[in-house]
């Protein structure tokens, strides 16, 4: 279910009037997942059905810089700093629960002057992959599980993060996985989160305490990938705002605290036939269909090359280490949480695969696009997976890139992903990540000062 299924512009205007909205946040998810755009008064929003912002807004690093010396980037993005035309998607209109005045927010799609979608915009990349499925008569279904940390406020980036103070007046000092009481320490915060999510129609499901101190996980009900990406995008904003209201931070950084597990965005995925509505991963007798194995084979074959998209920052690779609840390879197994691709025990129509490689820091549109792209390629190329792993995959070798430069090299070299996701998207994205890594390399870490300053 979407946020506002089948809403038209007329429906959106009536809804804005009913809710007495005075201003609208016009949002565009950039490549990092940051909300860009403009805030318009209600009247101006109605008049401007084609708001404009510079195309380069989609081509920035997380620090706000541009890779202007990259030739492929220069070919992809106009050097004249031209505008994109933004058009609201009425199905995404929802309230801003934390705003003082009645304020709405709506996600926009990006178009060139000729009316074509901006192909390197995250929503456009996901739409491109979904069209490939539609052309085959398939419809993918996903269910994201998003991990995050609550931390005490930290205004000095040189100091390590600490768990926040709960209702008891104390911070967590030990692992509290699945503890109800540990979640209840932050009841006032989570009551606000659930109220906000209900008001925004985000369809969140269960909340649990994860392994790390102050680490939580929220699960979303399964549904359409574009709608779920919108909901994850909205949820990240919502959670951060709610946490600030309660004098703490919420972070989706992949590895925010040393000595604690990282945060993932596990994505359950299946595919149904558009005509019959049946899960194509199952035969009529209930056994796994060959195409199910091909989907897994596609994930195994292409996910290493997709790593720069699902682990998009230098910090992302700190999560991918042995025995820390994150996979280190592309093995698959039945109800096995040590592998990259887990097959949960399920019914015939619920047969699915869970991609456990994706980090919580990934852009939800791009993460869903690329994992579905890998599975799609596996199905159309009829790729066979390796034998199933029945023991711990941590005993096996690394099969995933262990750093951003290696991941970007694999991404650029994989022509099949370039074809499915779009050439200009790959060129723009890789250039941005190259520059981010260069910026990171200018920073000297405490570890280097601790161990190298006087010892080498």
Automatic annotation (TrEMBL):
Presence of the UniProt keyword Plastid in the record: no
What family is it from?
Belongs to the glutamine synthetase family.
Q: Which cofactor does it need?
A: Mg(2+)
* Location of the GS catalytic domain: 122-456
InterPro entries associated with the record: Gln_synt_N_sf, Gln_synth/guanido_kin_cat_dom, Gln_synth_cat_dom, Gln_synth_gly_rich_site
Kindly give the Pfam families that the UniProt entry links to this protein. Gln-synt_C
Write the protein's name: Glutamine synthetase
Which keywords are on file for this protein? Ligase, Magnesium
């Amino acid at each position: 279910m979407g946020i506002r299924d089948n809403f038209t512009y007329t429906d959106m205007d009536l809804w804005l009037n009913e809710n007495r909205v005075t201003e609208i946040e016009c949002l565009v998810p950039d490549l990092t997942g940051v909300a860009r755009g403009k805030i318009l008064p209600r009247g101006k929003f109605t008049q401007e059905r084609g708001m404009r912002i510079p195309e380069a807004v989609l081509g920035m690093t997380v620090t706000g810089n541009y890779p202007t010396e990259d030739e492929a980037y220069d070919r992809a993005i106009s050097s004249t700093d031209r505008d994109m035309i933004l058009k609201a998607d009425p199905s995404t209109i929802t309230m801003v629960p934390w705003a003082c005045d009645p304020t709405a927010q709506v996600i926009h799609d990006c178009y060139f002057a000729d009316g074509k979608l901006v192909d390197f915009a995250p929503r456009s990349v996901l739409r491109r992959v979904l069209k490939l499925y539609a052309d085959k008569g398939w419809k993918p279904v996903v269910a994201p599980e998003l991990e995050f940390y609550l931390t005490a406020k930290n205004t000095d980036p040189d100091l390590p993060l600490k768990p926040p103070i709960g209702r008891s007046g104390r911070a967590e000092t030990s692992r509290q996985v699945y503890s109800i009481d540990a979640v209840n320490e932050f009841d006032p915060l989570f009551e606000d989160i659930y109220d906000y999510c209900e008001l925004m129609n985000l369809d969140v499901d269960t909340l649990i305490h994860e392994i790390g101190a102050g680490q939580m996980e929220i699960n979303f009900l399964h549904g359409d990938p574009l709608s779920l990406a919108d909901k994850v995008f909205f949820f990240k904003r919502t959670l951060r705002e709610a946490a600030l209201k309660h004098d703490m931070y919420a972070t989706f950084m992949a590895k925010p605290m040393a000595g604690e597990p990282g945060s993932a965005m596990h994505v359950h995925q299946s595919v149904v036939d558009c005509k019959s509505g049946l899960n194509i991963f199952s035969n009529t007798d209930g056994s796994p269909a060959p195409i199910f194995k091909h989907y897994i084979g596609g994930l195994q074959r292409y996910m290493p090359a997709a790593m720069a998209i699902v682990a998009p920052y230098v910090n992302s690779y700190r999560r991918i280490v042995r025995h820390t609840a994150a996979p280190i390879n592309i093995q698959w197994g039945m109800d096995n949480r040590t592998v990259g691709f887990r097959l949960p025990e399920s019914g015939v129509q619920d047969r699915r695969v869970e991609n456990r490689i994706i980090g919580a820091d990934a852009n939800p549109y791009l993460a869903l696009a690329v994992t579905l792209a890998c599975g799609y390629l596996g199905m159309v190329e009829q790729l066979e997976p390796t034998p199933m792993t029945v023991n711990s995959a941590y005993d096996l070798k690394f099969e995933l890139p262990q750093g951003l430069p290696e991941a970007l090299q694999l991404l650029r070299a994989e022509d099949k992903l370039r074809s499915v996701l779009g050439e200009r998207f790959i060129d723009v994205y890789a250039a941005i990540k190259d520059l981010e890594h260069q910026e990171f390399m200018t920073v000297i870490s405490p570890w280097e000062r601790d161990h190298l300053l006087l010892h080498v």
